[in-house]
Design a protein that fits this description.
Helices cover about 35% and strands about 35% of the residues. It is an alpha+beta fold. The chain folds into two domains: about 80 residues, Double Stranded RNA Binding Domain; about 80 residues, Ribosomal Protein S5, domain 2 (2-Layer Sandwich). The chain has a four-stranded antiparallel β-sheet. Helix 3 runs parallel beside helix 4. It is elongated. Belongs to the universal ribosomal protein uS5 family.
Length: about 170
């Protein structure tokens, strides 16, 4: 039974895309010199509308990336996408000093975004989007602001139901 579960976990890991957004090195001065530790920000997604982010800290880079990946797997959210592989409507996400504006785009536009927001959009499976970031250019709050925006998205059918009208 345990072997069967392990194989399922490997399959699930195989179909998810993983992107390391940022690796930070932190140092602490101790009696014998400097002691270094590392923090990693990882975005994981299935390219079909599900993605999550994780932040892990460890004394070496590979364990910090692994911790971040595990946290990202636990914090995955569902994002509604249109047939054009874009978002249903314009949305603004904020986290701390970072502010991200996400605007749907027509087919063939591509992902117009900076590196941090681009990694989130590609992991979700968005192929056509326009973005603009304001405030902080630190990748960690930008990723968090992007996920805050994506969590607010609603599909077109839900908006039609709530308003009681049909949208074209």
């Amino acid at each position: 039974m345990a072997k069967h579960n392990r194989n399922n976990a490997e399959k699930q890991r195989g179909e998810l895309s993983e992107s390391v957004v940022k690796i930070k090195r932190c140092s602490a001065v101790v009696k014998g010199g400097r002691r270094f530790s590392f923090a990693a920000m990882v975005v994981v997604g299935d390219n079909k509308g599900k993605a999550g982010w994780g932040y892990g800290k460890a004394n070496e880079v590979p364990p910090s990336v692994e911790k971040a990946r595990k946290e990202a797997m636990r914090s995955m959210i569902e994002v509604p996408l249109t047939e054009e592989k874009s978002i249903p409507h314009k949305i603004i996400g904020e986290y701390g000093a970072a502010k991200v504006v996400l605007v749907p785009a027509s087919v063939g536009t591509g992902v117009i975004a900076g590196s941090a927001v681009r990694s989130v959009c590609e992991s979700v499976g968005i192929h056509n989007i326009l973005t603009k970031s304001f405030g902080s250019n630190n990748p960690v709050p930008l990723v968090k602001a992007t996920f805050a925006a994506l969590a607010q998205l609603r599909p077109k059918q839900e908006i039609e139901r709530l308003r009681g009208v049909t949208l074209s």
